[in-house]
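Agenda item 2: beta-D-glucopyranose complex prediction
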Amino acid sequence: MKSAAFLAALAAILPAYVAGQAQTWAQCGGIGFTGPTTCVAGSVCTKQNDYYSQCIPGSATTPTSAPTSAPTSQPSQPSSTSSAPSGPSSTPTPSANNPWTGYQIYLSPYYANEVAAAAKAITDPTLAAKAASVANIPNFTWLDSVSKIADLKTYLADASALGKSSGQKQLLQIVVYDLPDRDCAAKASNGEFSIADNGLANYQNYIDQIVAAVKQFPDVRVVAVIEPDSLANLVTNLNVQKCANAKSTYLTAVNYALKQLSSVGVYQYMDAGHAGWLGWPANLTPAAQLFAQVYSDAGKSPFIKGLATNVANYNALSAASPDPITQGDPNYDEIHYINALAPALQSAGFPATFIVDQGRSGQQNHRQQWGDWCNIKGAGFGTRPTTNTGSSLIDSIVWVKPGGESDGTSNSSSPRFDSTCSLSDATQPAPEAGTWFQAYFETLVSKANPPL
Ligand code: BGC
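Presented output:
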């Protein structure tokens, strides 16, 4: 996701507000927001989170925190929890196979809604059709706040019912992402919990709620990416005060997550940054040692499968040639990084396998610096998710970051403004992290490689 590199802050760009009503897709509310709070005709001001309300086209049919309908390719009726089987009485048995083998990936209704609204807003029919098709490509549901666990419950029940009605077992992909003092080396994704304010206990409660939900549906397989950026920040960013302060809490919290999620059979991949971060030769050994230690401290559960790389980043799995911004790193793409990290993990006692995010990696050589991570201009959707990865170390190519959701706001007056989001290779103006960024989505669609 992010990078270790810290970049000189650019001059803050003052937000430009147009008096009157906010345009479609513009911000219309949120903490610290001082612009117009009503939208032009045809759009409704819709709260996305405490920091951000956005003018969404149409009426209130677009995503709030709860899904309203499932994607058309996966017709399904959410079943009531009363029909849910009771939880397993003992620890589930891990499969020795690739977790995806024999399962169909459940498509996120939340994302399908985002994409359907976005496609409707595109006037060019060819582009609109391509855009609409993105709803059928699986990505991950980010549990970025406790409130999102309501969606998880709905999806588990829905996936369970779908599995029963179709005879096709379902696999749900989630990102566990709510550490206290989250995103300690950047600002764009600062979260709801703070270490100083009961953060660890709040986090444990968040994990407990996920575990309770998963336990109710043993027929649905769940695969999780664990806490993007957190452990990678402990490898390289302890010079940042917030990360140094967070170190012991992150380790305790991640340990809790790994153990509890293992106890209900969730297949887990800890986030391991990307080639341009931990892939530098000097970072590989410390990274391997930390991940192996965390794995060991969590009891070496076979449900802790390995590591996720390039989450929400833009690197190729296998680059045709090194992008000049990789400046001599021998691990200039994800496959080189994984091939270098795996043996170091193995010798530290962690026989890890990997998943790699390629959701926005379709285009290459369009960044100014390798450390840039925010809404990179010229990015396109990338290789589709597949278990045909070409490497026995890689369980699946995945799309973790839902393409079209912002990496961070470019509004310098926001409490979560990170100057990386105003660099010259960052698309602007950009809304808050995680909220819909229509212009960005349209570029991802038109620059998709392979094409949609
Ligand atoms: C944001 C999350 C969001 C995720 C997926 C992160 O950058 O902080 O809120 O869920 O991206 O879009």
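Discussion summary: The chain is about 30% helix and 10% strand.
Owner for follow-up: CH.
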